[in-house]
Design brief:
Blueprint lengths: L3 E5 L3 H13 L4 E5 L7 E2 L2 E2 L7 H4 L4 E4 L4 H13 L7 E2 L4 E2 L4 E2 L4 E2 L4 E2 L4 E2 L4 E2 L4 E2 L4 E2 L4 E2 L4 E2 L4 E2 L4 E2 L4 E2 L4 E2 L3 E3 L4 E2 L7 E4 L4 E2 L1
Parallel strand pairs: 1-2, 1-5, 6-9, 7-10, 8-11, 9-12, 10-13, 11-14, 12-15, 13-16, 14-17, 15-18, 16-19, 17-20, 18-21, 19-22, 21-23
Antiparallel strand pairs: 3-4, 23-24
The structure holds acetyl coenzyme *A.
Organism: Oceanobacillus longus
Protein name: Acetyltransferase
Length: 205
Amino acid sequence: MKNKLLIIGASGHGKVVADIALKMNKWKTIAFLDDDKNIRSSMGLEVIGTSDYVFKHIDDYEVFVGIGNNVTRQKIHEMLEKAGASIPVLIHPNTVIGSQVDLETGTVVMAGAVINCCTKVGKGCIVNTGSTLDHDNNIEDFVHISPGAHLAGTVNVGQGSWLGIGSVVSNNLNITSGCQVGAGSVVVRDITESGLYVGVPVRRI
Ligand SMILES: CC(=O)SCCNC(=O)CCNC(=O)[C@H](O)C(C)(C)COP(=O)(O)OP(=O)(O)OC[C@H]1O[C@@H](n2cnc3c(N)ncnc32)[C@H](O)[C@@H]1OP(=O)(O)O
């Protein structure tokens, strides 16, 4: 483990990521990279360059992508992996994580989230504030589970899908890759085609 952490993205999501990293108390130095040259600091931490500077620092720093957009986060995460970056998992100290939970690199678990036993969360995922993933879920890479979303037991969520704030997914369901489920929406049947789904129960729009 390196004792320095570089977070790519210094705006909304990146700030929450930095807050978690600070609370984890694992790194001596935490800094940002951001492509907006007007942002010199964020959360009291220095922005030391634009994202292309990452290659200059890859040997000294662990690197984490603090960007909320699933597609952008995936692109940068995969580029970092290819370049051999060391990418941590970030877990807010006030989360509840069960036994045999597997969290892959580049994933962040935010305050108040609960992940129950035997759930797997892939690479570069966001398990946002106060969301719950019950037992035996399989969350594929680059998924975003928004604040307050609740997934019952044995739910599969395909790569790059985004479950909106306060959405609910009933047990034993599959949501395919590339889906977006709207705020407060409720999924009660499998979603087998990528697309945008809203309402109670969800319909495709
Ligand atoms: C820390 C953080 O901030 S994490 C981020 C959390 N943010 C979220 O979860 C945002 C989730 N986003 C939404 O729910 C959005 O409304 C989306 C993505 C589903 C749809 O956005 P858009 O594509 O812009 O759709 P638009 O607003 O034009 O709505 C299209 C129709 O769907 C309806 N609709 C949109 N969202 C929802 C919803 N969540 N539930 C029910 N109906 C909805 C609209 O009322 C509209 O209906 P109409 O055509 O009858 O008027």
